[in-house]
Amino acid sequence: MPKGKQFSLVLTLCVSFILMLIKFGAYWITHSTAILTDALESIINVVAGMFALYSVRLAAQPRDNSHPYGHGKIEFISAGLEGSMIIAAGLMIIIKAVAGLIWDTSIHSIDWGIYLTLFSAVVNGGLGYYLTRLGKKTYSLTLVANGKHLLSDTYSSLGLISGLLAIWLTNWQWLDNLLALVFAIIIIWTGYQLVRRFVAGIMDEADEQILRQVIDVLQTHRQVAWIDIHNLRIIQYGHHWHIDCHVTLPWYWSLQESHAEIKKIERIIKEKVDNPTEVFIHTDPCLPFSCTICQIKECQHRQQTFQRTITWEVYNLRENQKHLAP
């Protein structure tokens, strides 16, 4: 595992544990249900941090006979587990808040609750921003999930501070449980998004952002012999990409010429995309209708007049059929 990832996850785990103790201390001082929501979510941060460290370590393991595509899928499972725990915490908070609205509870020392919550928000915000940027840079779903979780925790804490200030100024203590309900809904929505990403990853749902990056590389470095590219598919395994596609080349080329051209395409993709990539390309021979989009000017086998160059986009490169001019 890259040292930057390992250090980030260990740092996150340590900080999350310290902040969890601070938040439960704030709840012990204030007896605030809203602060309890923050503290319960911190437990998730700690548990998720432990599993994230394990999953990123496992995802970095090389491929073997039992896992020919590597171990990267564990990162999706990590995000799904974290999302499920977040939803569970949100439901627990709703139960506690509803009980608090039915049976009146009093809160104390709101000023201390505000100070401790503000400190936690600042630390979580900085750490969440760092993890999200690093995760996007390294295409690590685990780091992005952890970072977004910490950022959502920060936003909740800032809203919590506003609510505590309102309670402090008005002495309307019922606002405490109302705030807890609002934050519980926000927490559940965050958990749902992570679970949704987990399902998308396990189901190999197409990521259009990654597709566009690869297509931009192909379009920028396009060669006239690449008559068309279609059936482009990209599967993400942790921070590794598996790319396969069909490339239409002149039918009269020798096997050696076609192989050399395919290796050139593979080399360009691997050099230009900012991610470890495995490329599998299937070669198709051109057909008579391919002449309408073929840019080879001096082709002795041309059967139809060239009509136009097709711009490669997501919608036409992922279709499983050769391109032709209308």
Notes on the structure:
By secondary structure, the chain is mainly α. It folds into 2 domains: 3-202, Cation efflux protein transmembrane domain (Alpha-lytic protease prodomain-like); 208-317, Alpha-Beta Plaits. It has helices spanning 3-30, 33-59, 74-102, 110-138, 141-170, 174-202, 208-220, 255-272, 314-317; strands at 228-237, 240-249, 277-285. The chain has a 3-stranded mixed beta sheet with strand order 1-2-3, covered by helices on one side. It is elongated, with a radius of gyration of 27 Å. It starts with a helix and ends in a 9-residue tail after the last helix. 39% of the residues are buried.
Short description:
The protein is built from nine helices and three strands; from the N terminus they run αααααααββαβα. The protein is mainly alpha-helical and 326 residues long.
Key features of this structure:
326 residues; mainly alpha; Alpha-lytic protease prodomain-like; Alpha-Beta Plaits; 3-stranded mixed β-sheet
